[in-house]
Design a protein that fits this description.
CATH architecture: Orthogonal Bundle
Strand content: under 5%
Shape: flat
CATH class: Mainly Alpha
Distance between the termini: 48 Å
Number of helices: 13
Radius of gyration: 27 Å
Order of helices and strands: HHHHHHHHHHHHH
CATH superfamily: MetI-like
């Protein structure tokens, strides 16, 4: 018995399908409205207020009336050498930490993804540095990096150093010290993200490659790396955004010391320390634009690679 729709029934079915889609769309919007309202209140409202404040001379304590100054804050920011130094410090920190964390995290993820005895224990142990609160880890490493800390003491005992060295106080090693601490703490997180990407690659592909005579290096370049690109880009974006807005580890190590300020610390010291809310808002908007620029670069590169 034929079940094909007659010419008269076809338009009726299309109308029913269109009505169903409309009802589903309305239901989807109704379910999304509460979430969108929360996002608008939590994210968009502070952003809009910050944009408005960046065009005013508002102060932290609010003792003086707020006046509209237009682009004056941005003009001053353009000539602010301290802010330029904080940008350069933050970018150097970002490049160093993201590069090392990616290489080390990928190596750890590849090792943990292989089959060996005690793999589950190693996966749990490798997350310990990341699980420690950043302020606690930074304070711990700060005490070890002092001139009388265990690192300098071990270096002298092993004849690597001729005398104790104050790693944090020395401008030539300060950035390397804080970068090393961030690499130690965050590499497990990078490894975890990359491990999640490795877990979804079908194992049958590696078995077929072995049958075809491909060695492990060829399997990595021809199978692992191309299929891991989505996870790699997500990891790099997360870590880059996190590094560009770094605050806690820098603040524990250096406070507001000139020459070692990150962009976030300079914004905080301007708003809270100096009390210039309007100028601090302009700094915050500049940081927002710099971070957005990095995101655009990543997304553009992703389209080129995955095309």
């Amino acid at each position: 018995m034929s079940t094909a729709a007659t010419p008269a029934e076809a338009p009726r079915r299309r109308r029913k399908s269109t009505k169903l889609k409309r009802r589903q769309t309305r239901l989807a919007w109704l379910l999304l409205v509460p979430s969108l309202a929360v996002v608008a209140f939590v994210a968009l409202y502070p952003l809009g207020k910050t944009v408005f404040q960046s065009f005013t001379d508002e102060e932290f304590l609010g003792l003086n009336p707020v006046s509209w100054v237009g682009l004056e804050n941005y003009k001053d920011l353009w000539h602010d050498t301290t802010f330029r130094d904080s940008i350069w410090t933050t970018i150097k920190f970002t490049v160093i930490t993201v590069a090392f964390e990616f290489v080390l995290g990928l190596a750890i993820a590849l090792i943990v993804n292989s089959s060996f005895k005690g793999r589950g224990v190693m996966r749990a142990v490798m997350l310990i540095p990341w699980a420690i609160p950043t302020v606690v880890a930074a304070q711990m490493w700060k005490s070890m990096l002092q001139s009388n800390g265990v690192i300098s003491d071990a270096g002298v005992r092993l004849h690597i150093l001729s005398e104790p060295h104050a790693w944090i106080a020395d401008p030539s090693t300060a950035l390397a010290a804080v970068a090393a601490v961030d690499i130690w703490k965050t590499t497990p997180f990078v490894a975890l993200l990359l491990l999640a990407g490795l877990q979804v690659i079908p194992h049958d592909l590696y078995e077929a490659a072995e049958v075809d005579g491909a060695n492990p290096l060829q399997q990595f370049w021809r199978i692992t790396l191309p299929l891991l690109w989505p996870a790699i880009f997500v990891t790099l974006i997360f870590r880059t955004l996190d590094a560009l807005r770094v605050f806690d580890v820098f603040y524990v190590f250096f406070g507001n010391r000139l020459g070692t300020q990150s962009m976030a610390i300079y914004a905080q010291s301007t708003i809270v320390g100096d009390g210039y809310v309007g100028y601090g808002a302009a700094i915050s908007m500049a940081i927002f634009l710099i971070i957005a620029l990095f995101v655009v670069i990543y997304l553009t590169f992703q389209r080129l690679v995955m095309r």
